[in-house]
Amino acid sequence: MMCPYSKTKDGFEIQMGTNHLGNFALTGLLMPLLLQTANSRVVATSSVAHRAGNINFKDINWESRKYNTNKAYSDSKLANLYFTHELTRKFNGIDGSPTFTSAHPGFTKTELDRHSRIAQVIGNLIAQKVYIGTLPTLRAASDSPAKSGDYFGPSMLEQRISNNCKIQCPFS
């Protein structure tokens, strides 16, 4: 998150490659097994930063424009939601297909802020503990009434997890 410009070994912008394209490829490779496994589930980890995303599909690797690390992160998180949305659409009504959900952890104190001094300072003051930030993802992975397309995350201030942490998918 918010790292200097670099590329993956395969030549993709680092945040899109790490946060989305690798997961996209893994899901594709696992799909035959997922389709054969009862109650399988795919959970994409997104972020409320997706709201600032606006993917430029003609320059997804940021080679023709000035690199903006925050926008690149937001784009990668929006890509995760697009992916979940498309999988939900594609497999809608197919018996035995996996459940496709998304989650965002909220502002959680992790090593993700290592490239931003201001994020580190703010995070030390107000970010939630990791064990709280994992709850939306755990719920997205295990909540039995969850349906494809559901998006889980903190419902109030990001430091608080309420009893109902499910939020509406931005594509509904």
How would you describe the overall organization of this protein?
With 172 residues, the chain is of the alpha/beta class. It has helices spanning 14-36, 69-91, 117-126, 130-133, 135-142, and strands spanning 41-45, 99-103, 151-152, 166-167. The protein has a 4-stranded mixed beta sheet, with helices on both faces. α2 (69-91) links the parallel β1 and β2 (99-103). α1 runs parallel beside α2. It is globular, with a radius of gyration of 16 Å.
- Mean model confidence by pLDDT: 85
Distance between the termini: 27 Å
The count of DSSP E runs of length 2 or more, i.e. the number of strands, is: 4
Please give the largest β-sheet. 4 strands, mixed
Strand order of the largest sheet: 1-2-3-4
Sequence stretches where pLDDT stays below 50 over 5 or more residues: 156-172
Helix content: 25-40%
Q: Determine the number of helices (DSSP H or I, runs of at least 4 residues).
A: 5
Give the H and E element order: HEHEHHHEE
The backbone outline, from C-alpha atoms, is globular
Beta strand %: 5-15%
Secondary-structure class: alpha/beta
Rg computed from alpha carbons, rounded to a whole number of angstroms: 16 Å
